[in-house]
Write a structure and sequence with these properties.
about 300 residues; disordered N terminus; mainly alpha; 13 helices
Length: about 300
């Protein structure tokens, strides 16, 4: 893994799309392994091992690299990325203990619908009206999946939606970091800071892990490592806004896994809701104003 390469590559949306799709296949595996691993330990322990495996894997690489590689002037952006990423994963892990995996994933990975709002808040560039229309369509789809009439929103659904907002910020921060930071530095600080942040959560939520649980925890950690590496690489070839639509591949991967493994067959309203979320997100991304896209 090269450590001296910083900044964006020449834009190549095809390469970025392939890397993003591969990354979110790994993300689907993370959710699956976390759901299975949750039968063997607590959410806090899952969160800790998800990050600690990455730190243990990267430490030898960092020690062999030039130590100057760890110097950064953007430590607070690394902290923001780690904090929002950790919060997103905890929210998703809790959500999948309460609602079907496919629903939790759909709600969490509605994050691209929030990206135009976040980009506007940061850059103050005007957001085109069709972008808001696309986001509105997506939010109607979310309501169709949730169907809150009569029962309100469950804790799992609210947790997944909170995770979506955190994920949107985390993904934008990856793109901002990619302008100046090498891949290894971004990955190392993410896993190191996320491990530190998840440690007190794991201690408070500690539950012993039986022998049958360790393979699932190891798989969870490596799936997370691969997903983060692929995401960082993808955002060097295209912006988070342009690659946002490919995030929705995780919904397809997870829905198939949820159906095969847990026999959670989506209802008609869920299918329609998924189509609206994906369609609205795609419309919002394509309709972004030139100024917003370049921001």
């Amino acid at each position: 893994m090269r450590t001296d390469s910083v900044g964006y590559r020449d834009e190549n949306l095809g390469v970025g799309a392939v890397l993003t799709t591969a990354a979110f296949f790994c993300v689907a595996l993370v959710g699956t392994l976390a759901k299975v691993g949750g039968d063997h330990t607590s959410t806090g322990v899952l969160l800790l091992f998800q990050n600690a495996v990455g730190v243990l894997f990267l430490l030898p690489v960092v020690f062999r690299a030039d130590r100057r590689m760890l110097r950064t002037d953007r430590i607070w952006l690394h902290v923001l990325r780690a904090a929002t990423g950790t919060a997103c994963w905890y929210a998703l892990f809790f959500a999948i203990t309460q609602i079907p995996l496919a629903n939790a994933t759909l709600l969490t990975y509605s994050a691209p619908l929030w990206m135009p709002l976040i980009a506007w808040a940061v850059t103050r560039h005007r957001v085109a009206a069709p972008t808001w229309l696309g986001a509105g369509i997506g939010f109607v789809g979310i309501l169709m999946v949730l169907q809150p009439q009569g029962h309100g929103f469950s804790a799992g659904e609210l947790s997944a939606l909170a995770g979506a907002l955190m994920l949107a910020v985390a993904m934008m921060s990856v793109r901002w970091l990619g302008a100046t930071e090498p891949v290894l530095r971004i990955l190392f600080y993410y896993f190191l800071l996320s491990t530190v942040m998840s440690l007190p959560i794991a201690i408070a939520d500690w539950q012993p892990v039986g022998a049958a649980g360790w393979p699932w925890l190891a798989g969870l950690g490596f799936a997370q490592l691969f997903s983060q590496a692929l995401i960082v690489l993808a955002y060097r070839y295209a912006s988070a806004e342009k690659l946002g639509p490919f995030i929705y591949t995780v919904i397809v991967f997870t829905a198939v896994i949820d159906w095969i493994v847990w026999d959670h067959r989506p209802t008609l309203s869920t299918y329609i809701g998924m189509a609206l979320v994906v369609g609205g997100g795609l419309f919002a991304m394509r309709a972004r104003s030139p100024a917003a896209v370049s921001g």
